[in-house]
Amino acid sequence: MDGRGTAVQGPRRLRRNAACAALVLCGALALTACNGDDGSDAGAGAGGASPSASPVSPSAAPATSATPAGGETPSASAASSKKPAPTATAPAKPKPPAPGPACASKDAVSPDEIAVYRYTPEGGQYSLIVKHGHWGCPVAGGVTPFVTVGEETYIPIAEDAKIGAHAPILSGSANKPITTHELTSWLETHPNKGLVFHYNVNKAGVIDTLGQEEYLS
After folding, report:
1. What's the DSSP call for residue 95?
2. Quick one: CA dihedral 50, 52, 54, 60, positive or negative?
3. Each residue's pLDDT tens digit, 61-118
4. How many CB atoms lie within 10 A of CB 200?
5. How confident is the model at residue 136 (pLDDT cuts 50, 70, 90)?
6. Does pLDDT of 42 surpass 80?
7. What is the 3-state secondary structure (H, E, C) of 163-213?
8. DSSP label at residue 71
């Protein structure tokens, strides 16, 4: 190539190089500006609102109150709901008086008690003349009477019957053994006293055990 062509190409190359440099500079500036915008947006997105600009700050949040409505704490409320223990025991109600002996029906008959009045030797065997009955209600003086029911009847008694007696047949208040003969002899001289005896009969219906009761009619 001649010298003129070389001289022409020189200025063109310079202009092309200058244009390329300008494009590179512009791209660099544009990249810097974009990075600056991205950085500021990212910083704002990453950091978010500052703690001071938060609508509700942790320190400003209302503290949960442990005191229930009414101003009483749970322990105070529970304590106030309990009634104080009584300082003195209430007096107990007086017990009703013990009931007295029940009064039996006027037609009631004790199965093993009799009032002895007399005796009879008819038929070759001693028989006691008695009345059946029951213990009544106490009367004036605290005496409990033996209330007789029905008519007089006869009950045979064995000659060897086991008999116990006390006053007025014998002295003292405790029963002492006597014989059938001793009993009939006393009844002969003291008829119709109506002393009460507890008795038992054998299979033949004859009295084999006779004990004077502690209570007198």
Report:
1. P
2. positive
3. 444 544 555 555 555 555 555 555 555 444 444 444 444 445 666 668 899 999 999 9
4. 12
5. confident
6. no
7. EEECCCCCCCCCCEEECHHHHHHHHHHCCCCCEEEEEEECCCCCEEEEEEC
8. S
CA dist., res. 131 & res. 213, Å (int): 15
Dihedral over Cα of 131, 137, 139, 142: its sign: positive
- Which H/E stretch holds residue 34? helix 3-47
Beta-bridge partners for 177: 164
Instruction: Please state the pTM of the whole predicted model.
Output: 0.52
CA 112 to chain centre: 45
Please give the Cα distance from 41 to 36 (Å, whole number).
9
Of 95, 168, 99, 192, which is closest to residue 137 (Cα–Cα)?
Answer: 99
Cβ density class 132-150: b for 16+ within 10 Å, e for less:
bbbbbeeeeeeeebbbbee
Judged by phi (left if over 0) then psi (alpha if -120 to 50, else beta), residue 174 lies in beta
CB 77 within 8 A of CB 102: no
For residue 208, what are the contacts with CB-CB under 8 A and spacing of at least 6?
Answer: 158, 161, 162, 200, 201, 202
d(C-alpha 154, C-alpha 199), whole Å: 13
* Distance between CA atoms of residues 179 and 190, nearest Å: 17
Copy the structure tokens of residue 34. Answer: 């974009």
Phi, psi of 147 (to 5 degrees): -90, 115
